[in-house]
Protein backbone atom coordinates (compact mmCIF):
# COMPACT_ATOMS: atom_id res chain seq x y z
CA UNK A 1 0.00 0.00 0.00
CA UNK A 2 1.26 3.45 -0.96
CA UNK A 3 -0.53 6.24 0.88
CA UNK A 4 -0.30 10.04 0.86
CA UNK A 5 -1.31 11.91 4.04
CA UNK A 6 -1.67 15.67 4.11
CA UNK A 7 -1.09 18.26 6.83
CA UNK A 8 1.29 16.29 9.02
CA UNK A 9 3.01 19.56 9.88
CA UNK A 10 1.12 22.79 10.50
CA UNK A 11 2.28 25.97 8.67
CA UNK A 12 4.01 27.34 11.77
CA UNK A 13 5.86 24.03 12.22
CA UNK A 14 6.96 24.10 8.60
CA UNK A 15 8.34 27.59 9.00
CA UNK A 16 10.25 26.53 12.10
CA UNK A 17 11.66 23.43 10.39
CA UNK A 18 12.67 25.29 7.24
CA UNK A 19 14.33 28.04 9.27
CA UNK A 20 16.38 25.47 11.18
CA UNK A 21 17.37 23.77 7.93
CA UNK A 22 18.45 27.11 6.46
CA UNK A 23 21.02 27.49 9.24
CA UNK A 24 21.90 23.81 9.60
CA UNK A 25 25.08 21.97 8.64
CA UNK A 26 24.84 19.51 5.74
CA UNK A 27 27.13 16.75 4.48
CA UNK A 28 27.35 14.34 1.55
CA UNK A 29 24.29 12.08 1.59
CA UNK A 30 26.31 9.10 0.37
CA UNK A 31 27.56 8.73 3.94
CA UNK A 32 24.36 6.86 4.90
CA UNK A 33 23.88 4.90 1.65
CA UNK A 34 24.62 1.22 1.06
CA UNK A 35 27.58 0.29 -1.16
CA UNK A 36 25.51 0.06 -4.36
CA UNK A 37 23.18 3.00 -3.58
CA UNK A 38 26.23 5.27 -3.23
CA UNK A 39 26.76 4.91 -6.97
CA UNK A 40 23.48 6.71 -7.74
CA UNK A 41 23.00 8.94 -4.69
CA UNK A 42 23.77 12.64 -5.03
CA UNK A 43 22.21 14.73 -2.28
CA UNK A 44 23.02 16.33 1.05
CA UNK A 45 21.88 15.42 4.56
CA UNK A 46 21.79 17.47 7.72
CA UNK A 47 24.56 16.31 10.01
CA UNK A 48 23.25 13.96 12.67
CA UNK A 49 25.19 15.73 15.42
CA UNK A 50 23.74 19.13 14.52
CA UNK A 51 21.84 20.43 17.57
CA UNK A 52 19.04 21.77 15.38
CA UNK A 53 18.70 18.35 13.72
CA UNK A 54 18.14 16.64 17.06
CA UNK A 55 15.30 18.99 18.00
CA UNK A 56 13.78 18.74 14.52
CA UNK A 57 13.82 14.95 14.60
CA UNK A 58 11.86 14.94 17.85
CA UNK A 59 9.28 17.42 16.57
CA UNK A 60 8.73 15.67 13.24
CA UNK A 61 8.59 12.21 14.80
CA UNK A 62 5.94 13.37 17.27
CA UNK A 63 3.89 14.92 14.46
CA UNK A 64 4.05 11.72 12.41
CA UNK A 65 3.36 9.20 15.17
CA UNK A 66 0.63 11.42 16.61
CA UNK A 67 -1.31 11.49 13.35
CA UNK A 68 -4.14 8.92 13.46
CA UNK A 69 -4.01 8.00 9.76
CA UNK A 70 -0.26 7.48 9.92
CA UNK A 71 -0.73 5.22 12.95
CA UNK A 72 -3.47 3.24 11.23
CA UNK A 73 -1.44 2.70 8.06
CA UNK A 74 1.96 2.04 9.63
CA UNK A 75 1.34 0.53 13.10
CA UNK A 76 4.94 1.28 14.11
CA UNK A 77 7.03 -0.87 16.41
CA UNK A 78 10.37 0.86 15.81
CA UNK A 79 11.51 3.85 13.77
CA UNK A 80 14.95 4.94 12.59
CA UNK A 81 16.16 8.42 13.52
CA UNK A 82 14.70 10.84 10.98
CA UNK A 83 17.07 12.23 8.35
CA UNK A 84 16.73 15.62 6.67
CA UNK A 85 17.79 15.54 3.02
CA UNK A 86 18.40 18.38 0.60
CA UNK A 87 18.51 18.29 -3.21
CA UNK A 88 19.65 21.25 -5.32
CA UNK A 89 21.73 22.08 -8.40
CA UNK A 90 20.89 18.95 -10.40
CA UNK A 91 21.07 16.58 -7.41
CA UNK A 92 19.26 13.28 -7.76
CA UNK A 93 19.01 9.76 -6.33
CA UNK A 94 18.84 7.03 -8.94
CA UNK A 95 16.90 3.77 -8.76
CA UNK A 96 17.52 1.86 -5.54
CA UNK A 97 15.81 -0.24 -2.91
CA UNK A 98 16.22 0.56 0.78
CA UNK A 99 18.34 -1.69 3.00
CA UNK A 100 16.22 -4.47 4.55
CA UNK A 101 17.82 -4.06 7.99
CA UNK A 102 19.12 -0.81 9.49
CA UNK A 103 20.77 0.27 12.72
CA UNK A 104 22.88 -1.48 15.30
CA UNK A 105 22.33 -3.06 18.68
CA UNK A 106 18.96 -2.37 20.34
CA UNK A 107 18.14 0.15 17.60
CA UNK A 108 18.44 -2.47 14.86
CA UNK A 109 15.22 -2.91 12.88
CA UNK A 110 13.67 -4.50 9.82
CA UNK A 111 12.57 -1.87 7.31
CA UNK A 112 8.94 -2.54 6.41
CA UNK A 113 7.84 0.98 5.49
CA UNK A 114 9.68 4.02 4.13
CA UNK A 115 8.35 7.56 4.28
CA UNK A 116 9.13 10.92 2.67
CA UNK A 117 7.77 14.06 4.31
CA UNK A 118 7.91 17.04 1.93
CA UNK A 119 9.07 20.32 3.52
CA UNK A 120 9.10 22.77 0.58
CA UNK A 121 6.19 24.02 -1.53
CA UNK A 122 6.16 22.07 -4.82
CA UNK A 123 6.08 25.23 -6.94
CA UNK A 124 9.30 26.49 -5.30
CA UNK A 125 11.44 23.93 -7.15
CA UNK A 126 11.42 22.02 -10.43
CA UNK A 127 11.99 18.28 -10.64
CA UNK A 128 12.61 16.30 -7.47
CA UNK A 129 9.68 13.91 -7.89
CA UNK A 130 9.77 10.69 -5.88
CA UNK A 131 9.13 7.95 -8.43
CA UNK A 132 8.13 4.43 -7.35
CA UNK A 133 8.26 1.41 -9.66
CA UNK A 134 5.11 -0.66 -9.11
CA UNK A 135 3.23 -3.40 -10.93
CA UNK A 136 0.96 -0.65 -12.25
CA UNK A 137 3.97 1.20 -13.69
CA UNK A 138 5.87 4.19 -12.40
CA UNK A 139 4.07 6.48 -9.97
CA UNK A 140 5.32 10.02 -9.29
CA UNK A 141 4.91 12.00 -6.04
CA UNK A 142 5.60 15.68 -5.39
CA UNK A 143 3.37 16.61 -2.49
CA UNK A 144 2.44 19.89 -0.80
CA UNK A 145 4.72 20.96 2.04
CA UNK A 146 3.80 19.17 5.26
CA UNK A 147 2.47 16.08 3.46
CA UNK A 148 3.96 12.60 3.64
CA UNK A 149 3.98 9.59 1.33
CA UNK A 150 4.50 6.14 2.85
CA UNK A 151 5.41 3.08 0.79
CA UNK A 152 6.79 -0.44 1.29
CA UNK A 153 10.56 -0.39 1.77
CA UNK A 154 10.80 -3.23 -0.74
CA UNK A 155 9.79 -0.79 -3.51
CA UNK A 156 12.29 0.19 -6.20
CA UNK A 157 12.28 4.00 -6.29
CA UNK A 158 14.25 7.11 -7.24
CA UNK A 159 14.29 10.91 -6.89
CA UNK A 160 14.35 12.76 -10.21
CA UNK A 161 16.94 15.55 -10.62
CA UNK A 162 16.13 18.97 -9.17
CA UNK A 163 16.65 21.59 -11.87
CA UNK A 164 15.57 24.74 -9.98
CA UNK A 165 15.40 25.65 -6.31
CA UNK A 166 15.81 23.11 -3.56
CA UNK A 167 13.88 20.06 -2.41
CA UNK A 168 14.06 19.38 1.32
CA UNK A 169 12.44 16.34 2.90
CA UNK A 170 12.38 14.37 6.14
CA UNK A 171 12.82 10.65 5.56
CA UNK A 172 12.82 7.54 7.73
CA UNK A 173 12.11 3.84 7.97
CA UNK A 174 9.76 1.87 10.18
CA UNK A 175 9.44 -1.67 11.45
CA UNK A 176 5.74 -2.34 11.78
CA UNK A 177 4.05 -4.61 14.29
CA UNK A 178 2.42 -6.11 11.16
CA UNK A 179 5.15 -7.43 8.86
CA UNK A 180 2.96 -8.35 5.87
CA UNK A 181 1.90 -5.34 3.74
CA UNK A 182 -1.32 -7.05 2.61
CA UNK A 183 -2.31 -7.61 6.25
CA UNK A 184 -1.52 -3.97 7.07
CA UNK A 185 -3.84 -2.89 4.26
CA UNK A 186 -6.66 -5.12 5.55
CA UNK A 187 -6.30 -3.59 9.02
CA UNK A 188 -6.17 -0.08 7.58
CA UNK A 189 -9.38 -0.62 5.58
CA UNK A 190 -11.17 -2.18 8.53
CA UNK A 191 -10.06 0.58 10.90
CA UNK A 192 -11.12 3.25 8.39
CA UNK A 193 -14.55 1.66 8.01
CA UNK A 194 -15.20 1.40 11.76
CA UNK A 195 -14.16 5.03 12.34
CA UNK A 196 -16.46 6.23 9.57
CA UNK A 197 -19.28 4.18 11.07
CA UNK A 198 -18.62 5.69 14.50
CA UNK A 199 -18.62 9.23 13.07
CA UNK A 200 -21.95 8.56 11.39
CA UNK A 201 -23.82 6.47 13.97
CA UNK A 202 -21.83 6.46 17.21
CA UNK A 203 -20.97 3.40 19.27
CA UNK A 204 -23.32 0.81 17.82
CA UNK A 205 -23.35 -2.99 17.98
CA UNK A 206 -21.91 -3.02 14.44
CA UNK A 207 -19.08 -0.75 15.54
CA UNK A 208 -18.31 -3.07 18.46
CA UNK A 209 -18.14 -6.10 16.12
CA UNK A 210 -15.76 -4.31 13.77
CA UNK A 211 -13.62 -3.26 16.72
CA UNK A 212 -13.54 -6.84 17.99
CA UNK A 213 -12.52 -8.16 14.57
CA UNK A 214 -9.83 -5.50 14.20
CA UNK A 215 -8.37 -6.31 17.61
CA UNK A 216 -8.40 -10.07 17.02
CA UNK A 217 -6.78 -9.81 13.59
CA UNK A 218 -3.98 -7.81 15.20
CA UNK A 219 -3.59 -10.58 17.78
CA UNK A 220 -3.22 -13.12 14.96
CA UNK A 221 -0.71 -11.09 12.96
CA UNK A 222 1.21 -8.78 15.31
CA UNK A 223 4.92 -9.28 16.04
CA UNK A 224 5.94 -7.53 19.25
Automatic annotation (TrEMBL):
Residue ranges of the Fe2OG dioxygenase domain? Answer: 78-176
Q: Where are the transmembrane segments?
A: none
Keyword line: Dioxygenase, Iron, Metal-binding, Oxidoreductase, Vitamin C
Gene Ontology molecular function terms on file: dioxygenase activity
Annotated 2-oxoglutarate binding lies at 167
Q: Which Pfam families match?
A: 2OG-FeII_Oxy_3, PKHD_C
Needed co-factor(s): Fe(2+); L-ascorbate
Write out the residues that bind Fe cation. 96, 98, 157
Tell me where the signal peptide lies.
Answer: none
Check the record and name the SUPFAM superfamilies matching this protein.
Clavaminate synthase-like
Co-factor remark: Binds 1 Fe(2+) ion per subunit.
**NCBIfam families attached here?**
PRK05467.1-3, PRK05467.1-4
HAMAP family listed in its UniProt record:
Hydroxyl_YbiX
**Name this polypeptide is given:** Fe2+-dependent dioxygenase
Amino acid sequence: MILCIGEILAPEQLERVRSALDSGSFEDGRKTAGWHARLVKNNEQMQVADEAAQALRTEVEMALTGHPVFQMAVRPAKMTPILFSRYRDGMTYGNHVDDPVMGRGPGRLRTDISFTLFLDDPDSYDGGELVTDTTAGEQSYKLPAGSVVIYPSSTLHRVDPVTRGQRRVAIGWIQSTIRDPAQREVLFDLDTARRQLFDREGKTAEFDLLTKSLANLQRFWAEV
